[in-house]
From TrEMBL:
It is an enzyme of class 2 (transferase). This is U6 small nuclear RNA (adenine-(43)-N(6))-methyltransferase. Residues 377-450, 464-490 are annotated as: Disordered. Residues 382-392, 435-450 have a biased composition (Basic and acidic residues). SUPFAM superfamilies: S-adenosyl-L-methionine-dependent methyltransferases. It comes from Labrus bergylta.
């Protein structure tokens, strides 16, 4: 169940997948389809229609008290996937405290959406069906679960969607409609010919369903466009129109169609369960509806909030404290020592930085990177080594001693650029750092907000001990003074263009020290990833751990 972690948060199977062993011991009809794997675990063969049907019927009975019958020659729904759709509809209609009315277009033999919606939330359903076999089974499933007062199954003509189904329902306003459109346009597409990437593995489950359930002229794209056409005439007869899609590539053209038709409210989502992905599209003509954010926007927001981080263990922190003291930097705590070493590295890299307000136990720096010096150092070092290899070797004279040669070589290879060593595998190291980071903000709320609001409007200076009101200009070190003007650190007044800005927090975590980098703004977050890895390795290589 690789995608279970991405299920809807309220899906009961998200963190607790079905226990096949327990279900087999309780339901004999299901037991015959459960086998023991080589690892000794109970498993089900999802390529057997009988096994899939037995699992669906067993889950509905065990978890919802529903008893249903499904013919093998019709579509057999999977319960976790249908639950995802039900929970998303709950999000669309904003809760489930009052009775809601919905339409299930093509309810199928199982009538699973109305059965779940009525059982879980007390929703009223109009369930439409064009297939005679599916209609008969759906009607029986509603009756044997005593839900006829909540679910009305109606037989409609072929190619009927919403318009014809609502001819007799002239005054009722429905809260939503649901639909599993036929995914495929023809038999070849249904079998995966010319429609499935050759590099993808074959489906892990059997494809069941009648012709009207899995195929339609033009496939799901044209089917949903027909629903859109109906919605343009019905408009506010339904608060939300929705459809589930089997192909992600169908989303873009359908959203574009809605945009062309001037539909004001549009959203979409993903349904993840087991090894299966599905997508859903919803639209509304009401201005007062709450529009759930699409999942990709949620992920981007979460990723934007999540900082990069790395941890310095206690033993390494002690060594770094000793190194900071030896360099003459006064530090009262491990956090102060680490911050001092980071500031030295940032100064060497010509990354502008200044202290910002934070709690007493922490240190926070606002960084402004103007040029990518952390990568250039490694490139210069490699270029210098290449040039040395290409120089012609002159014969040694009698007056040249081996010690002089050694001294000259040492002088060549200890340039300032070689001291700022980059770490290999930049992207993989930073990705690891990002995965282990914690989404927290360490400055007090008011101060942090004030700092962030002040960033975009002005330049960022180097750390300075000058009095308030004076212009802070970085002191030139002897190395910087000897550099050409283009290589010197920039003054704050000269900073008009920058690569990125970020907040660097140094904070204690029990006996360790954590360094975090929070993105603020800039051109490319990969550059912050690179700098994070550089700072991490610069510190850790001092204690023999990289």
């Amino acid at each position: 169940m690789a995608l279970n972690k991405s299920m809807h948060t309220r899906n009961r199977y998200k963190d607790k997948p079905p226990d096949f062993g327990y279900l087999a011991s309780k339901y004999p009809d299901f037991q015959q389809h459960v086998h023991t794997s080589l690892a000794g675990r109970p498993v089900v063969n999802f390529k057997e229609p009988e096994a899939v049907r037995a699992l669906t019927c067993t889950l509905l009975k065990e978890d919802f008290g529903l008893t249903i019958q499904i013919p093998l020659e019709r579509l057999i729904p999977t319960v976790p996937l249908r639950l995802n759709y039900i929970h998303w509809v709950e999000d669309l209609i904003d809760g489930q405290k009052q009775p809601r009315r919905g339409i299930d277009i093509g309810t199928g033999a199982s009538c699973i959406y109305p059965l779940l919606g009525a059982t879980m939330n007390g929703w009223y359903f109009l369930a439409t069906e064009v297939d005679d076999v599916c209609f008969d089974y759906a009607t029986k499933n509603v009756e044997q679960n005593n839900l006829s007062d909540l679910i009305k199954v109606v037989k409609v003509p072929q190619k009927t969607l919403l318009m014809d189904a609502l001819k007799e329902e002239t005054e009722i306003v429905y809260d939503f409609c649901m639909c599993n459109p036929p995914f495929f346009a023809n038999q070849l597409e249904a079998k995966g010919v010319n429609s499935r990437n050759s590099r993808r593995p074959p489906p892990s489950s059997v494809n069941t369903g009648g012709v009207t359930e899995i195929m339609a002229e033009g496939g799901e794209l044209e089917f949903v466009k027909r629903i859109i056409h109906d919605s343009l005439q019905l408009k506010k007869r339904l608060r939300w129109y929705s459809c589930m899609l089997g192909k992600k590539c169908s989303l873009t053209p359908l959203k574009e169609e809605l945009r062309k038709q001037g539909v004001p409210k549009v959203t979409h989502t993903e349904f993840c369960q087991g090894r299966t992905m599905r997508w859903a599209l919803a639209w509304s003509f009401y201005d007062d509806v709450i529009v759930p954010s699409p999942p990709n926007k949620k992920r981007k927001l979460e990723k934007a909030k999540k900082p990069l981080s790395f941890t310095l263990p206690e033993a390494g922190v002690k060594e770094l404290q000793t190194k900071a003291s030896a360099s003459g930097r006064k530090a009262r705590s491990p956090v102060d020592s680490i911050t001092a070493l980071l500031e030295k590295t940032l100064t060497d890299l010509r990354v502008l930085h200044k202290h910002v307000p934070c709690t007493k136990q922490e240190q926070s720096l606002l960084l402004t990177a103007v040029e990518n010096t952390w990568i250039h150092g490694r490139q210069k070092r490699r270029e210098g080594a290449r040039q040395l290899r290409e120089l012609p070797r002159a014969p040694q004279s009698a007056g040249t001693t081996s010690s002089q040669t050694t001294k000259a070589t040492a002088t060549t290879t200890t340039t300032p650029s070689s001291q700022n060593q980059s770490c290999d595998n930049t992207h993989s190291s930073c990705a690891s750092a990002e995965e282990t980071s914690k989404d927290v903000t360490h400055a007090p709320a008011g101060e942090q907000k004030e700092v962030l609001e002040s960033i975009s409007g002005g330049d960022v200076d180097m750390e300075s001990s000058m009095e308030a009101g004076q212009e802070a200009v970085p002191k030139e070190t002897p190395a910087a003074a000897s550099e050409p003007p283009s290589e010197r650190p920039l003054s704050p007044a000269a900073v008009k263009h920058f690569l990125f800005k970020c907040l660097l927090n140094v904070l204690p975590e029990e006996r360790d020290v954590v360094v975090e980098m929070h993105w603020v703004e800039g051109q490319n977050k990969d550059l912050m990833n690179q700098l994070c890895t550089y700072l991490k390795n610069t510190l850790l290589k001092s204690v023999g751990k990289c």
